Amino acid sequence: MTPATVTTATFDGTDVSEEFGRHFDVVIARGGSLLDAAFRLRYQVYCVENPFENAAEHPDGREIDCEDDRSVHSIIRHRRTGAVAGTVRLILPDADPVSRPLPMQRLLDAASRSRVAPLPSATTAEISRFAVSKQFRRRRGEERYADVGIIDQQTELEHERRLMPYLTYGLLRAAMRMGTEHGITHACAVMEPALLRLVRHLGFEFELLGAPVRYHGIRQPCFGKVSQVIEKVRWKNPDLWRYMTGFEVPKRAPREGDRSTAAA
Fold first, then answer.
1. What is the CA radius of gyration of the chain?
2. Fewer CB atoms < 10 Å away: N or C end of the chain?
3. How many angstroms separate the CA atoms of 222 and 115, rounded?
4. Contact 128, 189 (CB under 8 A)
5. Predicted confidence pLDDT, tens digits, the chain (264 residues)
6. Domains assigned to the chain
7. How far apart are CA 234 and CA 244, in angstroms?
């Protein structure tokens, strides 16, 4: 069950968003070694740990596909070690969306395609290649996501270990930031059910789009209007919303029937 409100841990009076920023960098990988690191982590996750893609097609140890020429990429970097903890890409709309639609649209049935047809094709992008390094993931169960992640027990610091669940949030923040830079108004994705539950727990609400599909296992297509997704995070998880936007959450105006808290 998804809780109505998510509260974040504090560290000596500091909210988790501020503490996360002290230990991790969220960086747009515009090229060079940063982009190379994103491709290498994708190879490790998508070709070695999980045979979603054919490793033999990537002999240089970098997982790159036909969508990367129209994508922007981000990584999360662990400040203390310099290790790349996660990566995500945003596939941008093509100049000719009819002949080259977003990958998700090729997986949808007719009814689902009709639901996304009204979305503005020029400003709709797809969140993709969401990956977290094995070093920063939990070691049992649904282990591809950092919802209970841990580092090597010989070197971990307790406060860093407690921040691992928010790697997923950091990647979503990166996707939203990239979308803002490129004028994206709507985002879609094809998520594993475990990841979809996790992003909902963190406050991100995407609309489900039809039935689950088979793509890298069972996946659920979903989409959302970026402004509405962020607005829901704003009220469900204000600490992490501040981390994502850098602004304070304004106090809600009192509603009729609320108990007065004014001083006598």
1. 19
2. C
3. 11
4. yes
5. 333 334 444 444 456 667 777 888 899 999 899 999 999 999 999 999 988 999 999 999 999 999 999 999 999 999 888 999 999 999 999 999 889 999 999 999 999 999 999 999 999 999 999 999 888 875 434 455 544 333 344 344 555 566 666 788 889 889 988 999 999 999 999 999 888 888 888 888 999 999 999 888 899 999 999 999 988 888 887 777 777 776 544 444 444 443 333 332
6. 10-245 (3.40.630.30)
7. 9
- Which tokens is 180 given? 């803002």
Q: Which two tokens stand for residue 245?
A: 């936007």
Alpha carbons 73 and 65: distance in angstroms, whole number: 13
The whole model's pTM is what? 0.81
**Contact criterion met (CB below 8 Å) for 74 and 88:** yes
For residue 84, list its beta bridge partners.
77
Per-residue buried b or exposed e for 139-171, using 16+ beta carbons within 10 Å of the residue's own CB: eeeebbbbbebbbeeeeeeeebeebbbbbbbbb
